[in-house]
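Design a sequence for this backbone.
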């Protein structure tokens, strides 16, 4: 029997980005003892890297804005595949969540009359993103951490222990959600520094682990984003939806190679940056799709006028939703009109003075100067698409965030699915984290409270043994016993990233995705034989070997769902099915684990580990449909839906 320390809490939150911290604050404010576990240092999460801002229809810069307009923009951006209830809750509650941050000490940039300033972003009809220069995520995380410290100080006054009701376990990785029958009973984790295992027992577990970008070669994501929460949910018996929709942000750095993929914030375009090809042409005017034609400018003059007088002009096409801009850039480069390093030019220097650029975009100025020796106040940037965000995630109840079919398991933030449909609008993630983080924390607390003393789900020793054996396997792969050479986890990871990039990337084709599935089957087999040397004390090779299980599971979901969906929509573009098909609008592709007892795909072969089924979404509520013109709905809904 594996001896591990067991700790008892009411609610455990996996992940300390915006969603995790907001959930933790809520659970603690409900009076529940709450533990936060995070893979990296506390405060180092993707949320901290968010640059542009938080979308909330406060109407500070344009009074025409309200939740209904935000709801409409979000549904349009997601090409009507969003779970409409989540989009509704998000649009209604986002302003309160931003105000709340301000009361907790966040210092947003101001308008001239002293209100929270809001900036333009792609797909948002009005200036809507509350921001702090281009470092909004940093301020968001700082504020949430400060709130946590203040709650810990209150607890100290009551109990004499700062960590009696809210404790952070940093640099610890969760490898399994544990269950007692159908119910969640806790999590199995290891400390990254010492390799020591421990178990946190709790009847409610909130997954807030962020994205999956590290399965792709060119990505804006950092090392932690190996799809852990997505995989943990699958392994615990939950489903994932919308996994075919991966957002390729149009503007990542393309040069030098060491920084390829690092994000260039959309604020650059929101604040006036224009995209040009190698002929100097402002090419986005050629790429406005029919569904957006009425809302976007047709000439440079009209587009430029919008910055001064948005009431009298239509928006520049550089501010189309991200999927449209990413595809356009891809086409320009493929047509031979790219920059020397395979991107296009993004220029802000001709539109704003150097002082304004340095004030509004300080991180971008610094990033290009330091990493590429480019001064963006005088020169254009070279940019191209980069894997940025996954719209797909855990299939949750829209109101509570509870994973369907797994009582006690909750998900919030990027790891949950449904909210953004086929394409997320910029700024809608930070607001999503706050709205649904709070909700998940609240309902996780209620779930934990529902158990009478002594009736909580239990963690069995056998489950701990199984989780420990799985985590230790890379130290003793079969090859070592047989005198052979084990597989190198780094090589497998590189080949996985290359396959996903080349075969399930921004433009997809039937035969390439089929090849990706074959490649994943082979990599899965090799991953079973991945081995590492050394000890459990800080051993990055071992950590990667563990993470491979998650990346392979998630990548299979992406490839299988993408192969199945025979249309193009949002973050899923097929060369062989280039049009959006109204018959697919209500379809969710639901991924589940074929054999929940298999730990690493052993024996899964080419058939894979993932089963896929198609499910229809509930019809959009009539009062929400009434927010749209019928002419617009015709573009998305089937005749049957329209008649109904
Ligand atoms: P994250 O902030 O990603 O946090 C995940 C947490 O989970 C981390 O603490 C991590 O350590 C932990 N974790 C992961 N796996 C495990 C495990 N196995 N065990 C324990 N802990 C684990 N969105 C916007 O709305 N506006 C923007 O301006 C914007 N800019 C962005 C800029 C960049 C460069 C990037 C990468 C993203 C940006 N986004 C933006 C997207 C947005 O930042 C993310 O979608 C969002 O922050 C995700 O938040 P989260 O709370 O879901 O997870």
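Sequence:
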């Amino acid at each position: 029997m594996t001896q591990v320390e067991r700790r008892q809490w009411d609610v455990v939150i996996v992940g300390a980005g915006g969603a995790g911290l907001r959930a933790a604050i809520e659970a603690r404010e409900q009076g529940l003892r709450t533990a936060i576990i995070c893979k990296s240092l506390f405060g180092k999460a993707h949320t901290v890297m968010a640059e542009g801002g938080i979308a909330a229809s406060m109407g500070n810069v344009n009074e025409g804005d309200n939740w209904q307009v935000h709801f409409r923009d979000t549904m349009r951006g997601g090409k009507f595949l969003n779970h409409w209830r989540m989009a509704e809750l998000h649009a209604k509650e986002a302003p309160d969540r931003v105000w709340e941050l301000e009361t907790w000490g966040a210092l947003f940039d101001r308008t001239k009359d002293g209100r929270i300033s809001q900036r333009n972003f792609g797909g948002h009809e009005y200036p809507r993103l509350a921001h702090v220069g281009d470092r909004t995520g940093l301020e968001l995380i700082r504020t949430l951490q400060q709130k946590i410290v203040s709650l810990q100080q209150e607890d100290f006054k009551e109990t004499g222990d700062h960590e009696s009701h809210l404790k952070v376990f940093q640099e610890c990785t969760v490898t399994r959600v544990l269950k007692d029958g159908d119910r969640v009973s806790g999590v199995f984790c290891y400390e990254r520094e010492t390799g020591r295992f421990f178990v946190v027992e709790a009847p409610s577990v909130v997954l807030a682990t962020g994205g999956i970008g590290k399965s792709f070669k060119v990505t804006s994501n950092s090392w932690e984003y190996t799809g852990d929460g997505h995989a943990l949910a699958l392994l615990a018996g939950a489903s994932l939806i919308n996994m075919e929709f991966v957002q390729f942000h149009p503007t990542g750095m393309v040069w030098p190679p060491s920084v390829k993929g690092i994000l260039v914030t959309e604020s650059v375009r929101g604040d006036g940056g224009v995209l040009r090809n190698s002929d100097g042409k402002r090419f986005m005017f050629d790429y406005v799709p029919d569904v957006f034609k009425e809302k976007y400018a047709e000439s440079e003059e009209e587009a430029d006028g919008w910055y001064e007088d948005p009431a009298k002009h239509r928006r520049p096409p550089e501010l189309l939703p991200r999927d449209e801009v990413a595809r356009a850039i891809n086409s320009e480069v493929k047509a031979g009109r790219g920059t020397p390093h395979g991107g296009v030019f993004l220029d802000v220097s001709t539109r704003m003075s150097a002082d304004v650029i340095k004030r509004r975009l300080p991180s971008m100025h610094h990033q290009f100067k330091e990493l590429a020796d480019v001064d963006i106040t005088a020169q254009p940037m070279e940019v191209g698409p980069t894997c940025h965000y996954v719209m797909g995630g855990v299939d949750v109840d829209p109101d509570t965030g509870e994973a369907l079919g797994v009582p006690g398991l909750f998900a919030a933030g990027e790891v949950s699915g449904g909210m953004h449909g086929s394409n997320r609008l910029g700024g809608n993630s930070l607001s999503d984290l706050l709205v649904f983080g709070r909700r998940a924390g609240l309902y996780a607390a209620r779930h934990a409270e529902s158990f009478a003393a002594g009736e909580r789900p239990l963690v069995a020793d056998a489950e701990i043994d199984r989780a420990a054996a799985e985590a230790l396997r890379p130290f003793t792969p079969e090859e070592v016993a047989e005198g052979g050479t084990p597989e190198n986890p780094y090589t497998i990871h590189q080949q996985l990233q290359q396959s996903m990039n080349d075969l399930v990337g921004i433009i997809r084709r039937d035969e390439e995705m089929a090849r990706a599935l074959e490649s994943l089957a082979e990599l899965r087999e090799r991953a079973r034989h991945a081995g590492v040397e050394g000890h459990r004390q800080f051993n990055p090779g071992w950590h990667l070997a563990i993470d491979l299980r998650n990346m392979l599971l998630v990548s299979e979901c992406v490839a299988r769902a993408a192969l199945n969906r025979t249309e193009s929509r949002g973050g899923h573009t097929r060369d062989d099915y280039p049009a959006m098909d109204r018959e697919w609008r209500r379809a969710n592709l639901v991924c589940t684990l074929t054999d929940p007892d298999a730990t690493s795909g052993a024996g899964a072969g080419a058939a894979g580990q993932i089963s896929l089924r198609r499910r229809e979404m509930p019809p959009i509520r009539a009062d929400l449909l009434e927010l749209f013109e019928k002419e617009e709905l015709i573009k998305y809904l089937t005749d049957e839906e329209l008649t109904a």
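The radius of gyration is 24 Å.
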